């Protein structure tokens, strides 16, 4: 098949990484793939030299850019377009409507956007996402299905023995600390404030507990979180690492992944942690319960409930053997349900059904 992978995000996030994973999977299967993305995109840097890249503003009006990309698709005899993120999704719908190019869109969010119903097919990243788009965006049942986001889990299995210690040393974190990791931009939706509020109770039981936050620090929310940490006297137990591109080192260093999010779909950070045999404590929202099995691969807690979050994290940190058991079960779950090997055939079959 000749496929266009189209993504509108320029920075790194879950949807962009999903696009990257699918693109490489399709290339490995022998398909001809063209990437359409905005200039100065993170994904273009990752894929440079691996395939043809078409840079586009993805502006829909005036229609010059639509016509240009449609001409490229026609010249390359593209069989199907696969879109990621809102602007690319809408752009793809218009290419389908006016130039007849089959379009499959991956849904990584749950926003009310009625253009979803006009795709040939929608791939939902979780069952929760599928239900949302059927109910609120009126996508017909026959035109939507769940194919879980996946990762290349093999690359997480062979981290160097010193990856974790080196990461801790680089941030001046004690090697014997029991490290709680959070990965993702520090913004209100991710709920890091509730982890800070849970810290006093955790530290009372586990004095060596320490939090490392990996991700962009977004104002004004980060100021609110830091002020609360100072008020509670736990600021010395938190390291703000900022954005990092060494996710394998991060996962090798932490003892448990915490995601106190208020709303989410199926964050890739959870999949990456579990692939590294790291147990997860996360909010029971969105598609997270489809991945984290409560009591087997980690724990699920209600959102915005610091007490329950503290109880779950303390239970994991206080028992090393329990952590190992949860981590091993999580790694197996990723292999069975969220790995490239388990999901790539399904996404390929979707493309084949709707190819021109």
What is the secondary structure topology, with strand pairs?
Layout: E1 2-7, H1 14-28, E2 32-37, H2 42-47, E3 52-55, H3 64-75, E4 80-84, H4 86-99, E5 103-107, E6 121-124, H5 127-136, E7 144-146, H6 163-170, E8 178-183, H7 192-205, E9 209-214, H8 221-232, E10 238-242, H9 247-253, E11 256-259, H10 268-275, E12 280-283, E13 298-301, H11 306-317, H12 320-337, H13 340-354
Parallel strand pairs: 1-2, 1-4, 2-3, 4-5, 5-6, 6-7, 8-9, 8-11, 9-10, 11-12, 12-13
Helix pairs in contact: 1-13, 6-9, 7-8, 7-11
DSSP helical segment count: 13
- Helix share bin: 40-55%
Order of helices and strands: EHEHEHEHEEHEHEHEHEHEHEEHHH
Judging from the principal axes of the Cα atoms, what is the shape? elongated
Largest sheet: 7 strands, parallel
* Structural class designation: alpha/beta
Global Rg? 21 Å
- Mean pLDDT, all residues: 96
- What multimeric state do the chains show? single chain
The poorly predicted ranges are none
**Proportion of residues in β-strands:** 15-25%
For the termini, the CA-CA separation is 9 Å
Tally the beta strands.
13
Strand order of the largest sheet: 3-2-1-4-5-6-7
Brief rundown of the structure:
The chain is α/β, with parallel strands linked by helices and 356 residues long.
3D architecture notes:
By secondary structure, the chain is α/β, with parallel strands linked by helices. It contains 13 helices and 13 strands. It has a seven-stranded parallel β-sheet with strand order 3-2-1-4-5-6-7, sandwiched between helices. α5 links the parallel β6 and β7. α1 packs across α13 and α7 packs parallel to α8. It is elongated, with a radius of gyration of 21 Å.
